[in-house]
Amino acid sequence: MVWRQSAMPSRSGTDHRGDGQQNARFAIAPAVSFDVLKVHLVFFAAAGVTVLGFAVGTIGSTAGRVALGIVCLGLAAIDVALWRTTIARRSRELVIDERDGELWAPGSRLVASMFLIALVSTIAYPIAFLVGILRGELTTGSAAAFTMSLLVAVICLPVLIMVAMGMYRLNGLVLTRDAITYRGYRREWSANWAELDRVEITPEPRVAIRVSGADAEIRVPAGLMASGPVPLAEYVDDLLRHPNRRPSKLPTN
Predict the structure, then answer these.
(1) Whole-prediction pTM value?
(2) How large is the greatest C-alpha to C-alpha distance in the chain, in angstroms?
(3) Is residue 215 within 8 Å of 192, Cβ to Cβ?
């Protein structure tokens, strides 16, 4: 069963003064800091130059226009993912999937989908470009751009194959009675609750939920999660401080 709520009633992650102010441990920087804004500006500038260059080089070519559309699609997907990871930092939504013996806080399907679209676009672009060259619709000078795009596609192709084979998965945080595990797209990090003693949100530019102890640490990238960092940090902190609220080891009937 999946349930969502706009904010979690605080038990341990916020103070109890009744004024709605958050504990400083879970305060995060503004959604768009200067460092984050610089990333977007650089990306927009690079994307604009790229699109303009391809637009000039593909005038009058059907295959070229298709290739240009693929480039725009891939760049748009990356931009959506960037903005989603930024906006998510201020989200008050908590998304939890209750499963037998565990709680699952899923990653953002939107971000994962945008990354996949960008990956497919990287592979499809040189194919459309090659069709244009073979049909004589693109100039000889386009061969250099095609070669570069082909090299990038060759690098990305193994990743797309692994995605198709199920070797990549949606990321998420798994909470059981005994342990907490962050499953990334390929790797995972786990620790027993007994090894951990605090939950905090790291500052910009890499906002993450950090669950740590003397000899263990797990970092959950805030921008990649379906839940906002504050409600998710509060939820994990509550389970850390109240073992009786963790899921039971056996499925409930």
Answers:
(1) 0.76
(2) 73
(3) no
Residue 213 pLDDT exceeds 60: yes
Backbone angles phi, psi at 105, to 5 degrees: -100, 100
- Name the one residue in this structure whose structure tokens are 């692994």: 162
Beta bridge partners, 105, equal: 173
Q: What is the pLDDT of residues 18-56, one digit of tens each?
A: 344 445 567 655 455 556 566 666 666 666 666 665 555
CB 233 within 8 A of CB 89: no
Contact 144, 54 (CB under 8 A): no
Helix (H), strand (E) at residue 45:
helix 34-57
Q: How far apart are the first and last CA of the chain?
A: 14
Interhelix angle 34-57/62-87, rounded to 10 degrees, is 170
- In the chain, DSSP assigns E strands to 2-5, 94-99, 102-106, 172-175, 179-183, 188-192, 198-201, 208-212, 217-221
> Token pair of 96, please?
């939890």
217: left (phi over 0), alpha (psi -120 to 50) or beta: beta
Element (H, E) at 140: none
- Eight-class DSSP state of 23: P
Nearest residue to 179 (alpha-carbon basis) of 193, 189, 168, 166: 193
Question: What tens digit of pLDDT does each residue of 150-201 get?
Answer: 888 888 899 989 998 988 999 999 999 999 999 999 999 999 999 999 999 8
Could you give the CA distance from residue 213 to residue 228 in angstroms, rounded to a whole number? 23
Which amino acid is located at 197 in the chain? D
